[in-house]
Amino acid sequence: MSTARERLRQVQEALGIAAKKSLGQNFLVSDVVIERIVNKVCSLKPDVLIEVGPGTGALTYFLRQLPCSFRVIELDTVLAQYWREQGLNVIEADALQLDWQPFYASEGCKVFVSNLPYQISSSIVIERSLDLAGLDHMVLMFQKEVAQRIASKPRTENYGMLSVIAQTFWKVETVTEAGPRDFDPPPRVASRVLAFTKKSNSIVNSKAFLGFVKSAFAQRRKLLKKNVAIHCSQKGIAEELLIEWLAGMGFKETARAEELNPEQFVELYKRFGFEP
């Protein structure tokens, strides 16, 4: 069987294309990394499989062979047409501007997989986290620094809004590492693949939760009570009551946002009465 690098060259020569920096294209060419991603996806037994940015097909070559409903989202017009001609169900669109709800209408296990363009990786994790009735799993490639932020623990340098949102809605695990040489052209940074499994939780208004967490981390050097003061004002909550809530959770009034774990953020958020 041909290698991923050989398949890349074949598609590029056939279409007369090169990676587009404007779209953040770095084509995956490591057969080992590809195998690990595909094996993880297979282990999830998807009924509906969505790939964002198939590019020249490093993952698509194998994913299209799985016994499930498979569709791809591709922004590059040339590549979108190429995959249509290959008989795939193609949506030519920006994954961040697309309404994902129609994907969730089908029954069964819904999985999203992608070697993500780095510039959209954080945003797409947040967007898919807000889909309360949506995906069951995600298997996604990230710049290593972003992957570390997603999985970071409280009281660490990388812990922040992205960590809280991701860990509130998903169980996160590492699938594999990937170095610059695993891509063509090589990026300047290392990469990491994470697998996400949807958690069940009682949050109804996910956008309100996102807004609350954003406010809490708005100015990291400020005390938590100062960052959420606007919510106290909107909800008619006295600062003394907020301090009492924090004390009941084991925190001093000088607590900062990075001290609270995701479960504690959910608890504090619900005390503010954002849920209907």
Give an account of the 3D structure.
The protein is an alpha/beta fold and about 280 residues long. About 40% of the residues lie in helices and about 15% in strands. It has a 7-stranded mixed sheet. β2, α3 (about 60-65) and β3 (about 70-75) form a beta-alpha-beta unit. The longest helix is centred in the first third of the chain and has 13 residues, at about 30-45. The radius of gyration is 21 Å and the shape is elongated.
Q: What class, by secondary structure content?
A: alpha/beta
State the strand order across the main sheet: 4-3-2-5-6-9-7
Secondary structure: number of strands: 9
Radius of gyration: 21 Å
End-to-end Cα distance, whole Å, is 56 Å
Q: What's the helix count?
A: 12
- Global geometry: elongated
Strand percentage lies at 15-25%
Give the overall average pLDDT: 94
Low-pLDDT segments, ≥5 res: none
The percentage helix is 25-40%
Keywords:
276 residues, alpha/beta, 7-stranded mixed sheet, two-stranded antiparallel sheet
